[in-house]
Design goal:
The structure is a single chain. The chain is an alpha/beta fold. Helices cover about 40% and strands about 20% of the residues. β7, α10 and β8 form a beta-alpha-beta unit. The longest helix has 24 residues. The protein is globular and about 65 Å long.
């Protein structure tokens, strides 16, 4: 109980300082914020030796603890990566200031003008895993948008995060700006993380950045509004008409350049008609980095050296030298899960628009009529009617915000959805 009280007191102090500083940051002009970012970037470069030394301690401990190669790659810092962090801050400084931008303005019949303006949120909490570069990235984006940030990084990167934060705070101080614009929680215990997720007295929004487990934990336990991010599972598709040498180079780069980043290729789709020619070339190319290929039944029949994929492989983020592979053809589009339109509770037009294939045009000037073969199921009183091809009719900027139930019921008989 005593320990719990100490944790809360520390977090309350951090939260209180952040809240106080946020009121100052919200009034800063672009010039002051850009100067702070530039000085922080300079401090990172000046503190490179300290940062790399701290990172070496984290890296060696993580390696001795058996951390996977992909996560070790995320953790590791080099002079080039420190330079990239500094460059990132300078790039943010060069961006237009979002604060104060008026997005819209409407005149009401009574003469009152109502508009939307971008303003700072206040205090942002960031919980993330062992990726030290996120410390600088999160600070830069929050500071530019006029927000204070409280950082809670993974324990495996603690010394790295501490060194980076010290440099950022030193840069702010040299610019005459409050150091508490960025604060790092150095207690990496789970108790502290849980208490942080309930610090709604001070934190205005919480952002988890990491794997599915971390995101799920924050979403389920936080009493603070959460901006939920997604996990990485990037696909590459090789069509029958593709330049195969170019495709091999793209796949090799996307899979092996850095296996620990969220935009690394994890899944590969290959058109069935070129499989017998392309798969042996793929195997030979990826053998250079000893990439394990987990293929479907047809792919393994062509290349017996492939490992047979399981259902889990199709949605998995490996962060390793592993790649899932599936053969497809154009008919596979029909096997996708149909879009379901509930006739009793019709969705907003944007829901269907975003759910339809990307080749449905969005011409903003004239109505269009596009014939597609994407299957749509209509749901009526919890009964799913048979999927059917639909004719999509899309109108530009319709003032109507919801689909008319009567119209959509009548359209069902003609296989028409009005957007």
């Amino acid at each position: 109980m005593h320990c719990e009280g100490e944790i809360m007191m520390t977090l309350n102090e951090i939260g209180s300082r952040a809240k106080e500083v946020s009121r100052v940051l919200g009034t800063l002009g672009s010039r002051e914020k850009n100067m702070g970012l530039e000085e922080a970037a300079r401090a990172l470069l000046e503190g490179e030796e300290e940062i790399l030394e701290a990172n070496s301690r984290d890296y060696e401990k993580a390696r001795s603890d058996g951390m996977s190669q992909g996560l070790l790659d995320r953790l590791k810092l080099t002079p080039a990566r420190v330079q990239a962090m500094a460059d990132g801050l300078l790039q943010v400084a060069a961006l237009e200031d979002p604060v104060g931008e008026v997005l819209s303005m409407k005149l009401r019949p009574n003469g009152l003008q109502i508009g939307r303006m971008r303003v700072p949120l206040g205090v942002i909490g960031m919980i993330y895993e062992a990726r030290p570069n996120v410390t600088a990235d999160a600070f830069g984006l929050c500071f530019k948008s006029g927000n204070a940030v409280i950082l809670k990084g993974g324990s495996d990167a603690l010394h790295s995060n501490m060194a980076i934060t010290r440099c950022l705070r030193a840069g702010l101080s040299s610019a005459g700006l409050p150091e508490d614009s960025v604060q790092l929680i150095e207690d990496t215990s789970r108790d502290t993380t849980r208490e942080l997720m309930r610090l709604n007295r001070y934190i205005d929004v919480l952002i988890p950045r990491g794997g599915a487990g971390l995101i799920k934990t924050v979403v389920e336990n936080s009493t603070i509004p959460v901006i939920e991010t997604g996990t990485g599972n990037c696909h590459v598709y090789v069509d029958a008409s593709a330049d195969q040498n170019m495709a091999l180079d793209i796949i090799f780069n996307a899979k092996t350049q850095r296996i620990g980043v969220c935009n690394a290729c994890e899944s590969l789709l290959v058109h069935r008609s070129i499989a017998e020619e392309f798969l042996p070339l793929l195997r030979k190319k990826l053998e250079e980095k000893q990439v394990e290929i987990r293929g479907d039944e047809d792919a393994c029949a062509i290349e017996p050296s492939f490992v047979r994929a399981t259902e889990e492989d199709w949605g998995r983020e490996y962060l390793d030298y592993i790649l899932s592979l599936k053969l497809v053809d154009k008919k596979d589009r029909q096997k996708e899960r149909p879009l379901q339109v509930d006739l009793e509770n019709p969705p907003r037009p944007s829901f269907i628009s975003h759910s339809l294939p990307p080749f449905v045009s969005e011409n903003q000037n004239t109505p269009i009529l596009v014939s597609i073969t994407y299957p749509v199921s209509f749901v009526h009183k919890n009964e799913i009617l048979p999927a059917m091809p639909v004719l999509c009719q899309q109108f530009p900027r319709s003032p109507r915000h919801n689909l008319c139930k009567k119209e959509i019921k009548e359209s069902k008989r003609m296989n028409i959805v009005t957007l």
